[in-house]
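#struct-pred

JT: dropping the chains for the assembly here, can someone run the whole complex?
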Amino acid sequence: MAVETGSERTYGNWRRPRPPGLWHLGLISSVLLVIGLIAGIGVIALVGLIPGLAVFAVMLPFFLITMKPDAHGQTPLQRIGMRLGRRRARAGRSHLYRSGPLGQTPHGTYQLPGLLAASQLAEAHDAYDRPFAILTHPWAGHLTIVVESEPDGAALVDQPQVDQWVAHYGHWLAALSQEPGLLACQVSVETAPDPGTRLRHAIAERQDPNAPRLALDTLNEIVNTYPAGAADLKARIALTFDMNAGGQRKSAGEMARDLATRLGGLTQRLHATGAGVAIPVNAQRLCEIVHAAYNPRAAELLEEARASGQPAELRWDDVGPAAAEAREESYWHDGAVSVTWAMSQAPRGEVRENVLARLIAPHPDIARKRVTVLYRLIDPGEAARIVERDLHNAEFRVNSATKPSARAVVEQQSARAAAQEEARGAALLNFGMLVTATVLEEQQLRAALSAINNLAPTARVTLRPVWGSQDSAFAAALPVGLFLPAHLKVPESVRAAL
Amino acid sequence: MRAPLPRRHNSRPAGPVLPGPRGWSGHARGRSVYLQAPAEWRATSIQTCGLWPFSVGAGAPLIGAPLGKHILTGATVCGDPISWFQRAGLLTAPTASVLGLQGFGKSTVIRRMALSLAGFGVLPLVLGDLKPDYIDLIAALDGQVVRLGRGRGYLNVLDMTLALWAAEQLGDGEHVKLKRELLADAVGRRHTMVSALISIQRGHPPDDREDSILAAALRVLDERFDGTPVLSDLLEAIESAPERVRMAAFDRGSLPRYQELVEPLQVTLQALLGDGRIGEMFSRQSTVRLDLDRPAAFDVSSIPEDQTELVGAALAACWGVGFGAVNVTHTLAEAGLAPMRHYFIILDELWRALIAGRGMVDRTNSLTRLNRQWGVGVVMCSHTIKDLLSLPDEHERMKALGLIERSGMLICGALPPEEMPRLAQTKDFSVAEQRQLISWQDPPAWSTAAYNDAPPGRGNFMIKIGGRPGIPFRATLTPSELRLNDTSKLWHENSRRGELASPTELAPPAPVPL
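RK: done, full complex below.
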């Protein structure tokens, strides 16, 4: 609850959306269980005992593998599916990627691999005449715009100001769920080592060649020694719109015109959330961001070019890696190795707003770290229905037992609190988190893994490496607004129901 | 409605081949086979905002002189009043104030700023170096060091040669307006400097009649005197009772009345010629002319600290001369007759001049006024606000506080807790920032292992501009600067008693029997 214990505000009360069904089973599994039981009993009654037991024996493994989730909430069925998927990928050699004129991609460009291969980039101007990039994912029918900012941080700021920032962040998220057509929001905070090029250029630009020797020597020494050990931090917010909203498929051009007027308001409201001044990302900048993610060694060159006033001109079909390999537990791309984790357990109980600070802060063992919080917005009408249903279920559980368990009572209280907050105007959101750590050499991978394993408990989350889908998880953690649930073959509702 | 499916490769497509929803299919084409959507939790926006992603800050912009490294992030912190005013638009005036306890490195930060700006082509001007802290730096930058003090150097406050020469250059053609402005400024400055000296010598400023007499007498000197007058010439001019001065004195035609009215002024001026508290530093022609194409420093360190009046007078005179010369240069540059020069003016120990006499705050305001803010940055140094508030008069105190408030940039070092309420009045400091400033003044811990005389908070400063969180940084020096910064050079040689050439030579005299 956002309660004030003394003068401290805490947040909590998030729950895994549980589909209706028996125990851990989803709806489909429960129905199949019931049908199976009836069938089994029917067979015993009509045909005989042995055939009936055979039916049960056939049914049993199915339910075992859908029933028992492990520490990360994965059932054996999911693990089997993952292994089969990996095997298929290796057999078809699709875990490898070779692009460029000497590679395997049809067009001979350094295209992005996997889910982002079909994406297309365009640029438009908003109401303030700022250029902004429009990224379309044609197969899913999604359109993304990205905003970049440099947060001020809560280091020396008084608690009341921080509380205000967080409250405004809550309002901003709530306002998003009312934006027509907005499907998901992704907030990605990336830390990278400061290569020192910005300082070098800032000083070289101002230096007077006729200045006294001592002054020039000192400035030289500063430029060479100061940047060591510093890190760069940037926040990027990607908003994903559904092009099919409202029944009719809109074209990218129409949506761009629509968004151009709305973008100014969206970015202005971000300022009050503590994100700092938010500027829409233009097409070149988006190319640089994605290219620097896939090829971290190029990041320094890109920074250098930008600082010297001649930014590199990248095309969207040239920002991918020249070579990549999706391994079981990591993703190798252009000489760098990344591991992506997904949050498998949200912080339990109550937390303060700085719970993610240590996870987000730069770490000396990790070259590039990206923490992406993914929000799925729920339509306000749907949200009202969901909270009422949750409240109803929780109250049912409490009232139906003569001595309700403590958990059931707490669940009822939290469901009631959520319903009240929603009634007062808060929006309902689904959120998840992805963390990507990139290192430039294989030998540094161990240290990076150990670092993340130590940072996860400080954020009170459990992180699970996305085994078997490192490439798609890497792409999902990038600030390009990839909404994974829309790309799944098995529709999500069915998956949840299993 | 989905996008139209692309044709398969082997069926001769009509248009360009497009990748599938999971990527290109085929050997080594990076198709994503198995997807896992990250697990989701559901909560209201009031709770979800608790996983706030902006709790860690990015670095500050790299505009200006590099001062040090950010204490929390290690990023380079850059800033100086000129760059933040001219390039970044973060300040409304190119002035900065530096506050902090003694011995915590204030002059180090200012030296770094001056050195970096010198690298950018800006000329540092130190108008009054008391300790001295800056003359080594100015000398290393091939600058001019003007020594002032009893017997070392003199400064004539009536010297308007530079302004007159510049006025001649401007001529009466298209720049006549600039010329008039320049002359008016120089005349006003001269008057203010004399008035300041009188205020310090007497302890209180001249009254309005004496002001008018002074102004008239200076005008008379301009008309009649050939060459550059000194204070004795001014005294003579008043003594000779010219018509103009008599009218200003309003003596109603009576010479004895005139002499009665000008006597207090004459007494003070006579004292300024040598025998008063201020001595004869201002009584003769200036020993050195300021060359404004190089860095410069006025070395007033030979004046003992306890002679507050002389210190205050010397500082005020340096400011008048320095700012006047900068004004001249800028006017000529505006007229296109001289190259535009940028200056970084350092006013050290501001409070010493303010408390030297009553009315000095107003004089300071007019002496440090500039017609054009472009191309000049001013940094004012003081210990704590308490120093400024040690003025006896309430509205003088308010005006002194106003000097700090109006400075665009505030750089604070370690400060004591009592200072915080006063500090909070000038700029909006959060409680966390105040605690940070207080923590820096803690002395070093006891240690038997090594004798460490440096307090751990030395070199830590916080840049504060209105409305934004403070930027704490640690000033780290480069090897070139460390060689220069040795302010305690005198103490390096362990003090030795003079070695005796032979034990008997300097034997004390034999005790006298009682």
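JT: nice. DSSP finds 15 helices and 15 strands in chain A. Chain A touches chain B through 149 residues (CB under 8 Å).
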